[in-house]
Amino acid sequence: MGFSLSLFKERVAVSRVRLYNKPMSETYEVDSFFVAYVKWHYGRGLRELFLVAGNFLWFVAHFFSFKLLLKTLFVPWKRLGEHYEGGLDFGALASVLVVNNLMRAVGFVTRTLVLLVGFVSYIVVLVFTICISAIWILAPLVLLGSAVLSATFFVV
Amino acid sequence: MTFGKLKTKSQPHFYCLTLDKYFPRTLRNVLRKFSALAALVSFALSFNTLPLYFGKADGLFFLFIFIYLFLSFLEFFYKSMSNEGLSSRINEKLLDKNISLDYALSGILFVTDEIDVTRGFLESKVGCEIFLRSGIAIDSCQNFIHSERSHIMSSSLNLESDFVNLAAYAGALYDADKSLESFLSNNSINREEFVGAAGWVARSAEKMRHKERFWGRENLGAMPSIGSSWSYGVAADLGKYGTPFETSTPIAFFDVESGYRDREVLALEGVLERKVEANAIIIDDDEKVARDIVGRLLKKIKLGVSLPLIEHKNIIELDSNALMAAYKNKGELEAELLKILNQAVAAGNIILYVRDLASFLGSVKNMGINLASILSPYLSSPDLQVIASATNVDFHFFIEQSPALLEKFERIIPDQAQMEASVSVLLEQVPSIEKQYRIIFSYPAVLNLTKSAGELVTYGEMPGKALDMLFEIAPWAAERKITILKENDVSVFMSEKTGITTGTIKEKEAKKIEHLEELLHQRVVGQNEAVSGIASAVRRARSGISNPKRPLSSFLFIGPTGVGKTEVSKALAESFFGDENKMARFDMSEYNGADALSRLIGDFALNKSGLLASKIRDNPYCVLLLDEFEKAAPDVLDLFLQILDEGIFTDALGRQVNCRNLIIIATSNAGSDLIWEAIRSGKNLAGSREFIVNSIIKDKIFKPELLNRFDGTIFFHPLQKSELQKIAELGLRKLGRRLKEKNIDLVINRDIINFLVEKGGDPQFGGRSINRAIQNEIEDLVARKIVSGEAKPGSRIEIKREELV
Hints:
The structure holds two protein chains of two kinds.
Chain A: H1 2-21, H2 33-42, H3 44-63, H4 66-71, H5 90-137, H6 139-155
Chain B: H1 3-9, H2 11-22, H3 25-45, H4 57-82, H5 103-111, H6 117-123, H7 125-133, H8 138-145, H9 166-176, H10 178-186, H11 191-212, H12 217-221, H13 236-241, E1 242-244, H14 245-248, H15 262-272, E2 279-283, H16 287-303, E3 314-318, H17 320-326, H18 330-347, E4 350-354, H19 357-366, H20 371-380, E5 385-390, H21 392-399, H22 403-406, E6 409-412, H23 419-437, E7 440-441, H24 443-456, H25 464-479, E8 484-485, H26 487-498, H27 507-514, H28 516-521, H29 528-542, E9 553-558, H30 565-577, E10 583-587, H31 596-601, E11 602-603, E12 608-609, H32 611-618, E13 622-627, H33 634-646, E14 648-650, E15 656-658, E16 662-668, H34 672-680, H35 685-698, H36 704-709, E17 712-715, H37 721-741, E18 745-747, H38 750-760, H39 767-788, E19 796-798, H40 801-804
Helix pairs in contact in B: 2-4, 2-5, 3-4, 5-6, 6-7, 7-11, 9-11, 15-16, 19-21, 23-24, 23-25, 24-25, 24-26, 37-38, 37-39, 38-39
């Protein structure tokens, strides 16, 4: 394991030398690959991690149409239903009432189900984000830990 | 901005490029995926209760986890850095709008040193692609790099603005490096084409990077959501007689960011956003333009970047033909129409597209249905939006006449696509065509195709006709096994298609053009002034320096009858269009009445097309010969005033007729008397020219402005005796050729020629009387000899003067 890391460091060093060795009329400061990475990891990288997580949460809300489904929770399924023509026909009135309410019920149940699945997905993404963030913040420890653990299993 | 500063600004990209250089992306990806899989497998193998237990599996698991995490962090860093400066069409915090960087350009800067900027450009992957798109083979680029050339220092690059993209950088390099400039111009690439190719490469690269960002809102948001259609109804009958718009028009290629048709799409969106009467009619002679605009709107809806009120809407195209085919009975058709409209309203998320509303109106009118009154209440409804298309004429003829409809529709009149916009539309389509036919389009080829389509294709509108050419040229190139389509290939294709030769003049053709006078003289006797005037006009047209917005050439031939005016026109048709029959001839003495103009350009009231309009439309590349031009009615002469000036006119039905690929020749006998007098009194015709023109103007035969519009007014002088002899000889040779087909030789001698000139050489009728003499005297005699059996196949006929008297 140590081998691949040192190899990488060496390559980065080579590239750094090449970057610096470019003949430049104006001198300017350039971070080495490693320094640039570390700065990025705890600065912009972390910020972008949360932004990407935000994008995925937004996506779940958008994919499961949270806003639209909540707004139309009790609307009849696909606008199906009957129109009551008026007059005093209690049979027709009852039938229209039953059909329309049934359609509303179908709509409500389907939407609730989808909302439920969506909500679970939302939670999953949220939990996932928390886990990734933890790994991200503790990256040096996690990397070092896995390298050490791996070595212990081989050595011991 | 200096080169150094530009490099510093591009630093974030350099990290990625360094990584790619030493640890290629493909290798990283394969390794990362492999380590993830290996970690999973070793995790499974680490349980000692399982049969495949492996003692070191725990250690392996942590090792692979380490590799996986390490590579993943590296990849995130790579993605984050390479997306620095990427533009975004929707507001997203991930992309900083204040930073603009061109990743493709960074690829070049990364390998460029300050001593030889051009070398860096040519040695980078992106640079190579730009040269390929310019139509230059990589080998010749390599030869150029290693040739003796002046090296350009980075300080000589003039990078003006703060934001330098690939196209601007390529432009600066072109300006700074003279040897690059001459290398490119040797390959017939100018600055515009080189910079255009760079812009194209940069845009394609950026599009690719946008596509890769699956975590970006624009990609996530483009995924269709669940349940958005549940609160809308279903329109079952519309399903039968309507098709979703995206099935009839491929919207996948549309790039809503290109800016093309932005104005029209925004206007359409604005109309559809209204609470009531949210209907639009797109008026354009080419229905494809309307389709294109609606398609771009649909693409915006699908991408989730449309205005809120039309989110989740479907655009359904009503198939009026299928509907009318299914219902022959007035009542049934009316009922079905109402049913469809009611369902569309009930569904609540439908935008109805009615193609060619006017012809639908007209067809149902024949069945006795008043479509306007049926549609009217629905058009006012807030639940249904209708987009219709109509041609200009139909709109004025049918829709404007029906106020009930007119007030419900907002008119959208698309702009004429400019060259730049047309090129960008073509470039949108190129990738899919390249994939299909396995050819590569160079940027100059696309430019040339657009330009040629605009100038040479006389039907349709831009960019539709350029797109048609694009779809036609791909299989043409594939058939000829052309791998990289260059500018010249397009010229060959266009001349095969239209008969007009464009592009670089080839050696054989160059000779033909150079010696055009001699070629014309093979058919035309004398008339040196006319022949040389015409030849130089042809040279101007072929060298590409003539004005493309006028007819190829236009001449007024003035001279007595029978002096070769028509023969010159025929010779011109043959030498320019390759066939003497490429000629549309009008005897203008027939067009001197009150109805002359309507016979030529059509009649709006009768919905009748005109003779001139239809003949030019049928033969857009020909010589238009207008005999006895002075006899045409004054309004007809005024029409030609416009044609000669603009190269275009509008017929009575409102359609534009393109005359820019015509050679217009008007002939006239006006001033013949003066020409005669001048010749008789032994004056030089060239010297009397001004006097003759002035007297033509004075006699009000032609207006001075009309005479000035012609590229040349050419005088034909009466034929001299020597010329008449030549004509007689040419006529006899023609007869000799015909007799040769019957295996009979005709001996032509001075005697017959002199006889013909004496007999038929009436100077008033010129060459025509000679031809008549040949017909009456010689042919008649020959015919008698053949009939009597005196002249048999294999024999010789020698006519003696005594026989003719």
